[in-house]
Amino acid sequence: MNKIKLVGLDLDGTITQHKTKLEEKNKRVLQEICRKYKAVIVAAGACQRVFEQLNRFKINIIGNYGMQEAEVIESAGSNQIKLVKDITVHKNRAEITDKIERLRKMTGYLGYQGDTVEFHQSGAITFPLLGTKAKLEDKLSFDPNRLKRREIYHLVKNEFSDDTVFIGGTSSFDIVPKEFNKYTALMNYAEKYGVKENEIVYFGDDYGLGGNDEHVYQSKIKFVKVDDYLMLKECVEALIC
Ligand SMILES: [Mg+2]
Prior knowledge:
- It is a single chain.
- The protein is an alpha/beta fold and 241 residues long.
- The protein folds into 2 domains: 143 residues, Rossmann fold (3-Layer(aba) Sandwich), CATH 3.40.50; 82 residues, Eukaryotic phosphomannomutase, cap domain (Hypothetical Protein, Haloacid Dehalogenase-like Hydrolase, Chain: A, domain 2).
- Helix content is 33%, strand content 24%.
- The protein contains 8 helices and 11 strands.
- Strands 5-4-3-2-1-10-11 form a 7-stranded mixed beta sheet, with helices on both faces.
- Helix 1 runs parallel beside helix 8 and helix 3 crosses helix 5.
- The longest helix has 15 residues.
- It is globular, with a radius of gyration of 18 Å.
- It binds magnesium ion.
- Magnesium ion binds next to loops.
């Protein structure tokens, strides 16, 4: 660990429960990391959402698989977020909705709460199997081992073959333009600071097939598996002791 110059961290499932505010214990872990290293969050969600989820913690954020990047700076006694990269792609929403409906028919996930698909400002898409308004507890218990989504992963990939499809969050698929993934995003970020691949360590929970950390896991970046965000402190120990 002594040549590490950059620490990358996934958010949901690694530092916090999914889409849930940062807890005190892991806040202290993050503070320790940031005190010793350059660190960045590499998230599937948008930077603003990540910033709020972390209670406006002072750490830079790569959002939407690299489509967004934000610096968090201290100004007048409070932390402010400043987007330094914000790529938008234009997608044909009607065409995407048709694809989602086709997939629902194919897979039997016909009932959902709220909307059938979520369009992010960047052009990234989330296909929430339970709908955009499903309750968090239903989402958390839906597919904790990701097996239900792995079973239909190939169908979603096939329908969105021009994009990269991730098994995201708790009960959804994230669909982003082909060139975006956490590995490429983290390497682009590292390059800006002159950090090499073997000088990065990454903490993530979603390293399996189709997982949103899989590209990083398959690379030469040192990967620390965090299978339970409540164990983050233990996982980080070698780095901060
Ligand atoms: Mg995660």
